[in-house]
C-alpha cells in the first residue's frame, strides 16, 4: 500500500522567518489521519530565512534528525554542543531525559531542511547531539543509511530507535530498490526531481506513506534526491 501525499495537501504555517509544510499534525495543524506513521511522528519541510531560526527550547524522549537540503543550520545546546551542518549533511539530537537547544540560519541565504522526529524505543537516557557529512556522490544510485538504530549501519549517525533514515540520489532513468519487509512502515519524500515509487508518481515535495510492500522501488523520471524513513509499525 502506498498513499500519495502531494505537497499541496500538507499542513502549512508561515511565521515571517519560517515557511513550513507539515507531513504530520504539528503545532496548529491537526489532522487525525496524519498523526504518525509507525514510529515516525514528525516530518516538517522548513524554509528558514537568512538570520531566522528556532530560539532555545526544550525536548525530551524524541529522536530528532535534521537533513539540510540547502544552506546550513547552526546548532547550540545546554550540553555545550555547537555545530554547523550544511547542505547534504545530517545532524541527530537524541533528546533523552531532556535537552534545550537552538537552531539558527546564520547564512546570507535561505536554508531548507527536513526536520524528522522518531519515537525512541525507550524513554529517558542521557541526551546527545552529533553531525556528519554525507557527500551526495556516495549515495548515487543507491540508498545509504544516514541515521540508524539498526544493526549493520555502522556509517550512520546513531539513533535510539528501531528505525533508519536513508538517502539516495538518482539520475534520470536510474532506479534503486529498498527492502522494507513485513511489520515495517516506510515514509518517503522527494526532495528534488520526479520519480515513481512502486509505480506511484511523485513530484518534488510530495510524500509517500508505505506499508505492506516487501520492496520499495524508486525510478527517477528526472534527476532526483530523496529521503526514506523505515520504522517499526
Give the tags.
seven-stranded antiparallel sheet, seven-stranded mixed sheet, mainly beta, globular, single chain, 233 residues, 22 strands
Ordered list of secondary-structure elements with their pairings:
Blueprint: E1 2-5, E2 11-14, E3 18-22, E4 40-48, E5 53-59, E6 63-70, E7 72-77, E8 82-86, E9 90-94, E10 99-104, E11 111-118, E12 128-132, E13 144-148, E14 157-158, E15 163-170, E16 175-179, E17 184-192, E18 194-197, E19 200-203, E20 207-211, E21 215-220, E22 224-232
Parallel strand pairs: 13-14
Antiparallel strand pairs: 1-20, 2-3, 3-4, 4-11, 5-10, 6-9, 6-11, 7-8, 7-10, 9-12, 13-15, 15-22, 16-21, 17-20, 17-22, 18-19, 18-21
Describe what this molecule looks like in 3D.
The protein is mainly beta. Helices cover 0% and strands 55% of the residues. The chain is built from no helices and 22 strands. The strands form four sheets. A seven-stranded mixed beta sheet has the order 1-20-17-22-15-13-14, with no helix packed on it. A seven-stranded antiparallel beta sheet has the order 2-3-4-11-6-9-12, with no helix packed on it. The chain has a four-stranded antiparallel beta sheet with strand order 5-10-7-8, with no helix packed on it. The chain starts with a strand and ends with a strand. The relative contact order is 0.19. Residues 12-118 form the Pirin N-terminal domain. It comes from Chromobacterium indicum. Pfam families: Pirin, Pirin_C_2. InterPro entries: Pirin, Pirin_N_dom, Quercetinase_C, RmlC-like_jellyroll, RmlC_Cupin_sf. Residues 151-230 form the Quercetin 2,3-dioxygenase C-terminal cupin domain.
